[in-house]
Amino acid sequence: MNNKKYIKGTKISDIDTPSILVDLDIAENNIKKMQTFADENNVSMRPHSKTNKSPYWAKKQIDQGAIGICCAKLGEAEEMATGGVKEILIPNQIVGKSKIQRLVEVNKISKVMVAVENEDNIEELSEAFENNSLKLGVIIEVNVGMDRCGVELDEIVEFTNKINQKKGLSFEGIMGYEGHTVNIDNYEERVNETNKAMNKLVKAKNLIEESGVEVRIVSASGTGTYNITSKIDGITELQCGSYIFMDGNYLKIFDDFQPALTLMCTVVSRRDNRIVIDCGLKSVSMDQGLPEVVSPKGIKLVGLSEEHCKCIIETEEENELKVGDKIFLRPMHSDTTINLHDDYFVHRNGLLEESVPIVGRGKFK
């Protein structure tokens, strides 16, 4: 096992590969830019940590003004709570006795709210928290068009009332994720489809409040819709996550935030204009397409296998490329690539600042 530790100031090019590099100046600027935007539009930031999977980044977001974070899974929330993050929303359903008991335990460390949409689930949650003399904050997930999880509008008032009858639960608000709109290329179409989705969420809020129940939280938004959802009256907070590093896919539709993350690889073979680098499906994801070569220019990635990546040299300028040289890739989807690695190598101007453990990797339970 390679447990080599690198000291601050190490040249990035001296780090073993394949490795995830993050330009700290760019990532911090992305965090600041998003928080400034949210402040100017009177919405709160509750960034999604399913991208970064690390209290290191969550604390940077909170230091800039985020009210807390989101975690996709309970396992991630446990790591974040242990790492000192005090306000966590799991915009997902926590189902089953073993997970609910873990949720009880993590709530003894940090405030962890969860999304709900099922009557049997709220009964189990309430019973567990009441038995432990605790109260769990819950938000109702509303189906705003993804047709994945979520309560429908005609059920929302009745479901809210059932939550308010449970002694172990505290109704905090609602959420809806317009994930089906975040990657729409055409901006006008993205605006229209996002507005349709968020109109359902705002209507849910209005229906609940007309029944006499206060809705404190209306949570939504992915990175691709941050500047649309934030301007809709009634939305109180944004759950964006990918903006911190930026995915290759998001960069195809807008450049509001700069790419901070690359995967550094090494050339292990060259034959004429064909090279092979030392990454593969076990170190870079391709669920949203093949990664792109950031540098050097003039190289095209053509295929991935488990441990190999085949590239073609397309320009004369790169004819000097040799075995041992470094190649830098940008994943189309950072989240699923980050989940394959143990550490980030965080740098400024090409010199290592620190190695940051990705403590949330593999925490999908």
Main features:
Lyase, Ornithine Decarboxylase, Chain A, domain 1; 29% helix; TIM Barrel; 2 domains; alpha/beta
Amino- and carboxy-terminal Cα gap: 25 Å
Q: From the helix content, strand content and strand pairing, which structural class follows? A: alpha/beta
Number of helices: 10
CATH-defined superfamily of the largest domain: Alanine racemase
CATH class division of the largest domain: Alpha Beta
Please tell me the overall pLDDT.
Answer: 96
Report the count of strand segments: 17
| Major β-sheet profile | 9 strands, mixed
Shape: elongated
Q: Give the helix proportion (percent range).
A: 25-40%
Plain-language structure description:
With 365 residues, this protein is of the alpha/beta class. It is 29% helix and 24% strand. A hairpin with a 2-residue loop joins strand 10 and strand 11. The longest helix has 24 residues. The two termini are 25 Å apart.
